[in-house]
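[SOLVED] Predicted holo structure with guanosine-5'-triphosphate

Edit: marking solved, answer below. Original request kept for reference. I posted the sequence and ligand SMILES and asked for the 3D complex as structure tokens.
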Amino acid sequence: MKLSLGLCGLPNSGKSTFIKLLTQLEVAIGPYPFTTLRSQEYAVPVITDELKSLHSLTQTQKIIPPSLFFVDVPGLIRNAHQGEGLGNEFLSYLRGCDAIIEIVRNFRREDVPHVEGSVDPIRDIFIIEDEIFFADRKIIERQLKLNRGMTKIDHNLKKIFDLLEAGKRFPHIENEFKKFNFLVTKDWFLLINGDCSDDILENEKLNFFKGRYCLDFEWELELKNNQEINEEFGSRVETFFQKLKKDLNLIQFFTFNDEITQGWFAFRGQKLINVVEQIHSDFAKKFKMAEAIDLADFLRARSWEEARKLGLIKNKGREAEIEENEIIFVKI
Ligand SMILES: Nc1nc2c(ncn2[C@@H]2O[C@H](COP(=O)(O)OP(=O)(O)OP(=O)(O)O)[C@@H](O)[C@H]2O)c(=O)[nH]1
Ligand SMILES: [Mg+2]
């Protein structure tokens, strides 16, 4: 399963700095707006303690963690929906993503200008809110104009339009409208860059976010480069990933053979047959059943044979749900 997360935020909020923090790659970062001019996707491996502990037992030559895909996108500014800044182009990058992480600036630095003239995260959040709302409304208006008549689709589109107008910006969406890729119906997560503020984390007006987090990107970068302070203060990036994974409704499961120990992501509640497909398309076609064991049980038994003797291995069929921290062996 591939999950792409679009980074949305005003210029200079730190989107590219966040990518650098996650990937260690040399991305373009600058103290002026629109440093990033086109979108770019980055695979970010997510290494967890669970995967490490499984590997410490399997000792395979290779270890492959699951990845999340982050898409760095140019900054958006007020009136982007009317083409200001990089406008609509930026919005279309976000439409292609599965979910959005909004990055909002809460750090002060004289040499990094703010397009609005001051640091005010809540104001910035509502600028973005307005932009995505206007952009989606424009799509609906255009569609209604194209169709003219009151077909069933028009009728339902009108309903969405009215919901949007009434301020319900994240209405449940019918399948027939999925093709429009509305931004308001995606899952949005808020990431505050800089000082953590309860005013933002607890603010009820921001309940449309599925998760809210704080990280000081500059500080975390500093920690990465300095072993000593890292040991003293510890990084918050891992905690951020744990929370994000949970809020995205993701679970991790594992496979291993003689050469590779591998972690995978699946959605909570996903059927075995669907997750097996991502391991190998042949696996799904020839699937008979899978043997499965919980990681903690396996760590105790220390080998598949021993686990079997202890009766810790379950047989699962194609319709069974994959569970968090399960190790599976597919039988074909
Ligand atoms: N002090 C401080 N500076 C930061 C932090 N995060 C980013 N910066 C600085 O802010 C400036 C803008 O950062 P970028 O990562 O380029 O911002 P961006 O959101 O990608 O900007 P655009 O590509 O223009 O949309 C750079 O000079 C960064 O060094 C932070 O947490 N603290
Ligand atoms: Mg950038």
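OP edit: The CA atoms of residues 52 and 143 lie 51 Å apart. Thanks to everyone who chimed in.
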